Amino acid sequence: MLIKPNQASLLVIDVQKKLIGAVSDPAGTLARTRWLLAATATLGLPTVFSEQYPKGLGPTVAQLKEASPGAAVVEKLHFSCVAAECLPAALLAREQVIVCGMETHICVLQSVLGLLELGKQVFVVEDACDCRGAHNRDAGIARMRAAGAQIVTREMVVFELMGSSAHEQFRHISKTYMVGEQP
């Protein structure tokens, strides 16, 4: 199954100021997530940021919000965005949800499992997910795959959203995001 631009939205889970320093690759995670956000914003993909207990853990990292300025922000206390019932109706109205964020084996996993239970087609962006250790990340990815989530990369997402080199943004995306060393 391919990602369809008119049926997909992006959910970025808990990439927050006080959490980012605890993951295994903070700089890489921020760079790859920012890349994904900027490219999908160029393509007009609806985006939502979730924040786990922002009073204590701080807001979403500012450079990510800057990459997708029109994105909605929702707060939660549950680890799962679905259990927290915080997802906007516009996101839930779409069949497909592209998911990335932190921590892979906790909030990302529980949100993905909840979305799958709602009947959503879920695409987990493996190279834009992180947590405190590779073993937990790998276990989270394996469990989501086994549950039926599609495991994808940032480039897979962007090229599926465009569908063709005839897409009006193809040239811009290619020149902006596909040249030089990638995060």
Mean pLDDT: 97
Number of domains: 1
Q: Give, in order, the helices and strands.
A: EHEHHEHEHEHEHH
CATH topology: Rossmann fold
- From the N-terminal CA to the C-terminal CA, the straight-line distance is 26 Å
Q: Helix amount, in percent?
A: 40-55%
Principal-axis shape: globular
Structural classification: alpha/beta
Spatial strand sequence of the major β-sheet: 3-2-1-4-5-6
Binned strand content: 15-25%
Number of helices: 8
> Would you count the extended β strands for me?
6
Rounded radius of gyration (Å): 15 Å
Quickly give the CATH architecture: 3-Layer(aba) Sandwich
The CATH class, by name, is Alpha Beta
Q: Any low-confidence stretches, pLDDT <50, length ≥5?
A: none
Main sheet record: 6 strands, parallel
CATH superfamily: Isochorismatase-like
Overview of this protein structure:
The chain has 183 residues and is an alpha/beta fold. The chain has one domain: 3-Layer(aba) Sandwich (Rossmann fold). 42% of the residues lie in helices and 20% in strands. It has a six-stranded parallel sheet, with helices on both faces. The protein is globular, with a radius of gyration of 15 Å.
List keywords for this structure.
hydrolase activity; 6-stranded parallel sheet; 183 residues; Isochorismatase-like_sf; hydrolase; Isochorismatase-like_dom; 6 strands; alpha/beta
